[in-house]
Request: fold
Amino acid sequence: MKLQLVAIGKAHETYVKEGVELFTKRIANYYPVEWNIIAMPKNAATLSENGLKKKEGEIILHALQKDDYLVLLDERGKQLNSEGLASFIQSRANESIKHIVFLIGGAYGVSDEVVKRANYKWSLSQLVFPHQLVRLILAEQIYRACSINRNEKYHHS
Reply:
């Protein structure tokens, strides 16, 4: 199973880059993993919120493959604890899912079409985080889940 972490926006900011790279490298000990940072549309500043979500949605949907299992990070999604995420990832592996895509949408969220395409909606927290920090949290939590599934000590260290 391959994991892809997708975010709309700029490259990783300096203050999160080192952590994101560290946890992504650790995840690679369990699953092939890559980041895909999708640049905002060139005319983003001229678009309405809905127009921007629609344009970003088109880019996202175009980048997805038919069989990709899309996990949308969404404040209205289901909250999981670390063990729950570990179980979720293991269940997808047991189902022979070949490619899981974890998507962090744009500043205004994602289009209705992307929401409909999502196989699962996951909320990290009821709190609101900067998108850059969400990248770091996502990478760390996926690594934590992988270590839980292997019964390694990281989760309780």
Remarks:
- DSSP finds five helices and five strands in the chain.
- The chain has one domain: 2-156.
- The longest helix spans residues 131-149.
- Helices lie at 14-27, 49-63, 82-94, 112-117, 131-149.
